[in-house]
Amino acid sequence: xxxxxxxxxxxxxxxxxxxxxxxxxxxxxxxxxxxxxxxxxxxxxxxxxxxxxxxxxxxxxxxxxxxxxxxxxxxxxxxxxxxxxxxxxxxxxxxxxxxxxxxxxxxxxxxxxxxxxxxxxxxxxxxxxxxxxxxxxxxxxxxxxxxxxxxxxxxxxxxxxxxxxxxxxxxxxxxxxxxxxxxxxxxxxxxxxxxxxxxxxxxxxxxxxxxxxxxxxxxxxxxxxxxxxxxxxxxxxxxxxxxxxxxxxxxxxxxxxxxxxxxxxxxxxxxxxxxxxxxxxxxxxxxxxxxxxxxxxxxxxxxxxxxxxxxxxxxxxxxxxxxxxxxxxxxxxxxxxxxxxxxxxxxxxxxxxxxxxxxxxxxxxxxxxxxxxxxxxxxxxxxxxxxxxxxxxxxxxxxxxxxxxxxxxxxxxxxxxxxxxxxxxxxxxxxxxxxxxxxxxxxxxxxxxxxxxxxxxxxxxxxxxxxxxxxxxxxxxxxxxxxxxxxxxxxxxxxxxxxxxxxxxxxxxxxxxxxxxxxxxxxxxxxxxxxxxxxxxxxxxxxxxxxxxxxxxxxxxxxxxxxxxxxxxxxxxxxxxxxxxxxxxxxxxxxxxxxxxxxxxxxxxxxxxxxxxxxxxxxxxxxxxxxxxxxxxxxxxxxxxxxxxxxxxxxxxxxxxxxxxxxxxxxxxxxxxxxxxxxxxxxxxxxxxxxxxxxxxxxxxxxxxxxxxxxxxxxx
Amino acid sequence: xxxxxxxxxxxxxxxxxxxxxxxxxxxxxxxxxxxxxxxxxxxxxxxxxxxxxxxxxxxxxxxxxxxxxxxxxxxxxxxxxxxxxxxxxxxxxxxxxxxxxxxxxxxxxxxxxxxxxxxxxxxxxxxxxxxxxxxxxxxxxxxxxxxxxxxxxxxxxxxxxxx
Lengths: 716, 163
Fold this sequence. Notes:
Chain A has 716 residues and is α+β, with helices and mostly antiparallel strands.
């Protein structure tokens, strides 16, 4: 049981199978960060929001470092530094910071996309972003606000549209009312309310074939100017507009074509504004067709040269933009809401029950007479089984998926810190709900990293303390009672009560020396709390425990810390068993069925009355191979009414929890099967000695015994 | 216009619809909006140490829900389980609970004028849980605040002091 590696021997661990998970998570984190950045109110930034943004950056950094994507880790480390100062209120957020963080998020995204595509060429440089972030983090406000030399392709030449303007008058001078599109400039005003003009825009949207309309910057107050392309006559337009504005308020004049718009409005197609550049270019070709043999033909011909020069650049710019920030990450999986899967599982459960019922009812049928029906039912049987299996498998994945991320991470960590660490994993086969696995991975990563970074001492230090040179980190998962318990245990230096208390005082938290150890340990879950002397890129910013607590609380779980200074720390994460599959053993007591978790069952045997001794207050002990253990009669603790007085409990099932054993007295063993654990508390309440319930093949509910609770009770 | 007028009248008079059911000789009404569905009775799985009127839990399309026999809770003279026994599945504040009654009668609309305050008398039902007495012709309905009734501690559906 368990996997150990030493001297980096087992280092050839293939991490690539987890890349996909990381890319998806990082993508989600980036999305979330972007969202929160955009929502951020700079005037009074909320601590929660800043912490949230920080956590996103931190998670990406952690993952990127684990997988060895140093460029992403470096960039996000810088972002994190800036965000860290923001959330500590050492800096006041300014728009430039949001800009640079958003750009950095885009850059991270494209870097990730490159890694995902397995690109080998030199990565796009992020040095300028790193520099800008560190400047901002140092409290410097860049003097020039304008877009700071982003690594964009060389700008398309600004004067490009100019030649088009020359060709334009030939079109604009075409007789009004002629078939074909006309370019008009419509000035509306003075208006009482600017919204009145919006109705005009809606006209163009609502009436098919009327043409297109676009806003132009207005030079006077209470006046709107639109650029319109239409084939309708002026009087038609005026009639249409009359519904919304008076005729006197409308001035229609022939526009000097769409291209002139860009030039006149003072927004030359700079900054690699691809749309701006292609727009006029396309239109230029359009004019050319519409005005054959017009006097402007020659000029237009001349115009082709520069215009086509623009179009040549455009695809290149577009291509680079695509390879850069716009790159989309591919996904080979579909993410589905957990409740949809739940619903699916419930429906399949119903289907299985209905199928079982049909099978039961068809037993009495004559097989010759109903051959087809019976064949159909047999098919139904097989298909429902397959379906149930597939649906169940959607959710359940073994803990090994999570655990196997860690050996490599710890190895790199140990190398970086000059420590020697062994990793032992236990209970990898424990199956866990996929939703839980996804959410538990990040917290566990933090916990393991914390253990490696803060817990385990340097080899020399360990030897001096009389400990083995190699530190050990133990990861274990098990089902306990109604919960899944995941433990991260190290034999390092443990938590220092004094250090935590003094740090807490430093931060102005309300603490006292009389606090219990458990309360003191809970302090490290406060956001930003860290007792590490040096903030490294591994950990020490104190963000880890905050994230851990938050993520686990979101799963209705709890985190407990047990530590003794000098001997190590154990962090136990206890998660409720909302929907987990368990191997169960069903036992019968009279007419009732109870489920025992198979993992707790040790053995079963026919009881021999001579081996049972009654001791004080009627409690009984049974001797099993020289060991005495308490007997628990299910009939008694569950007050099972005896319908059939002939029946009696004659079989003992030995179960074990927390290292203690008890013998359960039951009537019969019914079988072993996988059961879906259902929560009793969602509609009812906690029942003593019961950890949950499940639905049997016939649709009845059976209770699952809480072995841990039973054993504790019997042993007291 | 008449439909709208009627709707407005109902809204102003505070008329609501009630599902009525029978327990022994009495007729009770509960807010129809709290009712999820009505099913036949199927034997539930017994829960040890639960009060007698909690018959146990059943599987309702994958969800485990408790079944409360109102006849036992209200000390009715007899509580038989046969093919006519019905369970009203209630949806109360995201909890689903089934109650067993003698029979379900119909759905009735009651305006506020038709509801009178219940007299303050000792009964098995806490007065807090009775909205009032509704009268429809000759019939008298005991209108229950089913949500309050089911969440009261002595129903044993929620852990004492909790929830």
